[in-house]
Amino acid sequence: MNEQNQRSTCYTLKNCRVTQNGQANCQDKKMKVFPKDIPARVTIIELSRNNISTLNKTDLKNVPNLLRLDLTRNRISKIESSTFVVQISLKMLILNNNRLCKLQEGMFDGLVNLIELRLTSNQIQTVEPASFKSLSKLRMLDLGHNKLRHLTSFFLQHTPHLQNLYIPANKISTFHSWELSNKSTELVILDLSQNELMFFRLTAGIFPKLKTLHLEDGINNGIVWEVNDTAHLRSVVKLDISGVRSSLHGLQEVLETFNSSLRNLQLNHINNSLQVLINVSCKNPKLRIFGIRNNSIKVITSDLLHLCTNLRILDLGTNEITDISDNSFQSLRKLTTLIMKSNCLTSVPNAVRKTQIVKLDLSCNNINVLACDDFANMLHLRVLYIYNNPLLALNDCVFKDLINLNTLMLQNSSINQLNGAFREYTPNLKTLSLINNTLTVLDHGEFKALNSLQTLSLKGNKLQQFKDGTFFGLSSLTHLDLESNEIIEITNGALGDLKALKILNLGSNRIKYASVEPILYPPFAELSQLDTLDISSQSRTHKRLSFPQNFLQGLTNLSILYIHGNHLTFVHPNTFNNTPNLNVLIMSNNLIRDIPDNLFSPIQKLKSLYISRTYLRSLDFLLHANLTELELLQVGYNTFSVIRKPVMLSLPALTDLDMHGNTFTCNCDNAWFLQWVNASEKTQVFDAYNFECSYPPNLKGRKLLQIDVRSCTVDTDFICYISTACAVIMTLAVSFTHHFLQWHLVYAYYLMLAFLYNSKNKDKRAHQYDAFVSYNANDEGWVLGELLPKLEDEQGWRLCLHHRDFQPGKPIMENITDAIYGSRKTICVVSRDYLESEWCSREIQVASFRLFDEQKDVLILVFLEDIPMQQLSPYYRMRRLLKRQTYLSWSRADAHPDLFWEKLRQALETQEHPMGEHILLTVEDGPPGERPDQ
Fold first, then answer.
1. 218's torsion region: left (phi>0), alpha (psi -120 to 50) or beta?
2. Which residue intervals of 630-686 are DSSP H helices?
3. Which residues lie below 8 Å from residue 354, measured CB to CB, with a gap of 6+?
4. How far apart are CA 265 and CA 781, in angstroms?
5. Listing from the earlier edge strand, what are the strands of the sheet with 224-227?
6. What is the pLDDT of residues 226-260, one digit of tens each?
7. Which residue has the higher pLDDT, 375 or 675?
8. pLDDT one-digit tens code per residue, 607-648
9. CA 717: distance to chain centroid?
10. What pLDDT was estimated at residue 533?
11. What pLDDT does 220 receive?
């Protein structure tokens, strides 16, 4: 068994779709051969309506767990021997409507547990002796509508437990019991109808368990009926000899054979001595069900059925009855069901009132009026079918005596007014159908007497709106069908009386809302028990159609919602806030191009989502939906062409993905999706093998799964090796650099920042300050107590201090460079603390670069204390590369402080002379702490 067949859940097949319950649906796929990619776990395969012509011995070897195989309507003319050899679990095989001509030995080998075999509508003429040798457990065999001419023992020889044998519409003209079997069988049903039998000979008791015998439609005149012992058919309880054209004597002979056991007799399409045959039949005291349909009966009198005193069910349908005498059913005291469907009655016969029937079918007649006494005293009636009659209107008293009526069917009867027919009567009615009438208005309390009603169907009328109290009294109603009316709105309180409602169908109406703004009276606010709501296919009355954001308020138990086909252009993010238990959402066939990211966040129990044909441009909304329980997603016929990896990974429970009808971008954007389709062992992507490319142009029309995306991927192992090697080298380089060149690199980094700043601002530079003072916070006392009073207060210089003049919110480095380049000079107040400060180091580095770049003496160093040369940072050693330094030492100015301040003033006064032409501020040539002999 290959790896693909070992997968445990759904995955992508070429032509089939595997459901959660292990069924492979391969119908209508125009396949010419049996599919090879069906997984081994599948137990049911539906392959009907394809073009398969041959079943080969290797076709089914990978599906050993089959229980049911349906190959109806193919072109199978050949099944190789041993084709089913591994199908030891198969219980049902359906080969109807194919082209088999012969059942050969070995054709069904392996089907040791087969229970049902259907071969109807082939061209079978021959059955070889050992054809069924493996079918020892077969219970049902259907060979109807073939070309068999004889019954043979082959049917039963290897199938000792066969119970149902159907051989209708063949070319069998004789039935001889010894041809079928020479011993008792277990047959319960034998169907020989439509075979034009000329001889029926039963000379042995081979049918001790036979209960149903069909001989109807096609028996030639002069049938020879030879049953030498009526005990041979003593178990038969149902006999159908409809359409018999035999002589009266012949039919009487047939009927008298079953007089001791028959309970169900069908004498349809007889039209010959019908009264005699009815009398013969009704002499059987055990007859309970009698069908005499399609016999062109026009009038029924008391004589027709006077002997049928024990009947329970009488079917007089599809005759031409126009009149029934009042006492016609008087003798039928045990009658419970009377069927007079499809006749020519213009009113309810008075005869029915004198019965104790429980079910009455008067459908498809010409009754145009129901009078108050039509059902008088029919206290036992539970089921009344009176649909397809031109009733036009009801009377308020027509059902007054039907206190036990349970089901009333009034569809297709042109009823335009109910006239209070359900305001007082039928308290036990549970099902009421008023489908396809012409009702336009329902008055207040129209159904107030129907406290027991559970199902009400008003589909296909012309209702526009409901008044408050229309459904008053329907406290038990669970199913309300209002589909295909003209409802524009549901007014406040219209549904308020339906507290128990579970299913509501409002599909195909004209409900419209122009805005998503909340409405004052949400229509379903009181339907907290509602489980299913259909509000699909509302007529498009204007370009923009929306539902108010609180439209579903109150539906806390809603499980299934249909809103497809509504031309919705927008769905408000709050739409599903009140439906936390939603399980299935169908919103296909709308105009929603973009779905709000948080639309599905309140319905995290969602398992099935249908959003096909909505012009979706992306599936990214699923990233924010948190649909961790979603199992089925249908998003076919949309406009997105790329499926991103995070989208699919956000649906961990997804087993069925339908993107049928989409086109895709066939490049590296979809490389991950293509690989995932082929490799996923959890999610089946329906019809993936037919996905077509829409871009790039040179691949348009190509199949997505045929595209080679190997160039879009790289060797992960090689990448890991290179990455690891680079990481090791970088680590060594960084460690070396940090240890030996740390300060040089930092210096270079800040020189680069200064260079970039200078290049950017050199043409628009303006000196806002005379000098920027760079100092450490620990030296702030000297700067504010000595430097600032002297330079600003006494000498009038404009200084820039970081704590005072830096712009709040701007990056520190940007403030530093702005201050240095925005001042004529930079005064660095140097101390040991200064040298240890990160930000002070950065300030002097930027100032140094300015000095180097502009070749002007713009840097003034003021040393507050003597610092040994070895403690100076490498940043400051570079300063010695300059020809001369401008510096002042405060620690050596104790004796002449005025000279210190004078020299500082001179340094500030000097314009930006070229380096080397600066004023010598001290008698020293090096920084403080450096001895002359160094």
1. left
2. 645-649, 671-679
3. 326, 327, 329, 330
4. 122
5. 174-176, 199-202, 224-227
6. 888 888 898 999 999 988 777 788 888 888 888 67
7. 375
8. 999 999 999 999 999 998 899 999 999 999 999 999 999 999
9. 39
10. 97
11. 58
CA distance 348 to 61: 63
DSSP letter string, 434-490: -TT-------TTTTTT-TT--EEE-TTS------TTTTTT-TT--EEE--SS-----
Q: 706 by DSSP, 3-state: which?
A: helix
pLDDT band at 756 (very low <50, low <70, confident <90, very high): low
CB atoms within 10 A of CB 275: 10
Residue 19 lies in a domain: no
The answer, yes or no, to whether residue 763 has pLDDT greater than 90, is no
Work out the pLDDT band at 597, boundaries 50, 70, 90.
Answer: confident
DSSP 8-state secondary structure symbol assigned to residue 689: G
Residue with tokens 């011995």: 57
Beta strands, E only, 130-274: 140-142, 164-166, 174-176, 189-191, 199-202, 212-214, 224-227, 238-240, 264-266
- pLDDT tier, 917 (very low <50, low <70, confident <90, very high otherwise): very low
Whether 88 is in a domain gets the answer: no
Task: Find the CATH number of the domain harbouring 782.
Answer: 3.40.50.10140
Question: CA–CA separation, 359 vs 572, rounded Å?
Answer: 51
185, β-bridge pairs: none
- CA-closest candidate to residue 552, choices 513, 608, 591: 513
Question: What is the model's pTM?
Answer: 0.74
Closest CA to 123 of 175, 158, 169, 166: 169
Domain annotation covers residue 844: yes
User: CA-to-CA distance for 130 and 107, rounded, in angstroms?
Assistant: 9
Lowest mean pLDDT among 106-110, 496-500, 766-770: 766-770
Domain count, the chain: 1
Amino acid at 608: S
Q: What is the mean pLDDT of residues 726-739?
A: 77
Would you say residue 757 has pLDDT above 70?
Answer: no
Secondary structure of residue 101 in the 3-state scheme: coil
* Buried-exposed string 10-45: b where 16+ CB fall within 10 A, e elsewhere: bbbbbbbbbbeebbbbbbebebeebbebbbbbbbbb
Element (H, E) at 724: helix 716-740
Considering only 519-533, 594-608, 683-697, which range has the smallest mean pLDDT? 683-697
Nearest to 618 by CA among 588, 594, 600, 636: 594
Q: Phi/psi at 711 (nearest 5 deg)? A: -70, -15
Decide if 138 is inside a domain: no
Is 828 or 545 the better-scoring residue by pLDDT? 828
Which regions of 372-444 does DSSP assign to beta strands (E)?
A: 383-385, 407-409, 431-433
Question: Quick check: 509 and 487 in contact, CB under 8 A?
Answer: yes
The 10s digit of each residue's pLDDT in 680-727 is 888 889 888 888 888 888 888 888 888 877 767 655 566 677 778 888
Alpha-carbon distances, residue 468 vs 490, 492, 494 (angstroms): 10, 7, 5
Q: What is the dihedral of CA 868, 873, 876, 878, to 10 degrees?
A: 110
CB-CB contact of 209 with 189 (8 Å): no
User: Does the N-terminal peptide bond of residue 548 adopt cis geometry, omega within 30 degrees of 0?
Assistant: no
The Cα 472–Cα 443 span in angstroms is 10
Q: What letter represents residue 523's amino acid? A: P
The pLDDT value recorded for residue 383 is 98
Q: What is the token pair recorded at 116?
A: 């049902």
Mean pLDDT across the chain: 86
Domain region containing 849: 740-909
Please say whether the beta carbons of 41 and 64 come within 8 A.
no
- Name the pairing type of β-strands 68-70 and 92-94: parallel
pLDDT of res. 5: 37
